[in-house]
Amino acid sequence: MDEFIGHSETIEACRQRSGRMLSIVDLIEAQTFSPMLAAYALVAIGRGASFMVGARPGGAGKTTVMGALLNFVPPDIPLVAADGMETIARGLEGGMKKSCFICHEIGPGGYYAYLWGEPLRRYFELPRHGHLLATNLHADTLAEAQEQICRQNGIPEAHFRRMHLVFFLQWDRQSGRRQISVVEESDGHAPHRRLEIDPDGTLHFENSRWVRADECEAAAAIIGGLLRSGARTVADVRRWLLMNGFSWMTPSEGRDKGNGGG
User: Fold this and answer.
1) Which residues of 139-170 are buried (b: 16+ CB within 10 A; e: fewer)?
2) Domain segments of the chain as ranges
3) Which of 66, 76, 83, 225 is the most buried (most CB within 10 A)?
4) What is 3-244's CATH number?
């Protein structure tokens, strides 16, 4: 299958409701993401950061945010649905191309690509073999995420830290506003550290282990170009990003800066 088509179809397969999956353009227009936060995510995920989206209530938009961010995965890394032990085992055996394994949600229930227990523990071993992770779960704070992942599922804290970025989504039911309110970041070794976000979406990333100010500025110009391009669907945004969205990188930086997957 053509990698571009496979990428877009894998994101669309995450959809839980009717209609298309929303793109980062949709989420910026809805003020779920500020352009600056989108630029930060483009740099960090484009560099190889694994990520997770958290929100406690159902229907908050976790899967939507995850799907939009999957368009920032580098162009040479295919998306793979972590649909069970057999698929995860292939990633753990060695020799498989570096991939981004998508757990549709961390939780029990037997739904497609939901992981809990032993499959989840094995899933969190994938970064040791060079793979990226992307998922979401019902949690509003890092402590709640750790409770589910580390304590209820017995996943070592060291493995949890390989989930480099954790985005927490705040949903105001009365107004319908959804906004990324917190980003927790780890280099894969040290404990997660919170990056402050102002109410207007300004991100304070002075302590970021993944993104420098000049890189964020360069990526912000890319995001501005995307917003002016007219691209809107997941497929159109991915196509535009493949042509323009990773140009802030220089060959000397590589795609694994800060990656603590080992």
Assistant:
1) bbebeebbebbbeebebeeebbbbbbbbbbbe
2) 3-244
3) 66
4) 3.40.50.300
pLDDT at position 259 is: 45
**3-state SS, residue 165:** strand
Residue with tokens 């995307």: 226
Number of C-beta neighbours around residue 125 at 10 A: 16
Q: What's 127's DSSP letter?
A: G
Query: What are the φ/ψ torsions at residue 39 (nearest 5 degrees)?
Result: -65, -45
What share of the chain has pLDDT > 70, as a percent? 92
- Phi, psi of 133, rounded to the nearest 5 degrees: -120, 145
151 Cβ neighbours under 8 A, 6+ residues apart? none
What is the per-residue DSSP string for 39-81? HHHHHHHHTT--EEEE-SSTTSSHHHHHHHHGGGS-TTS-EEE
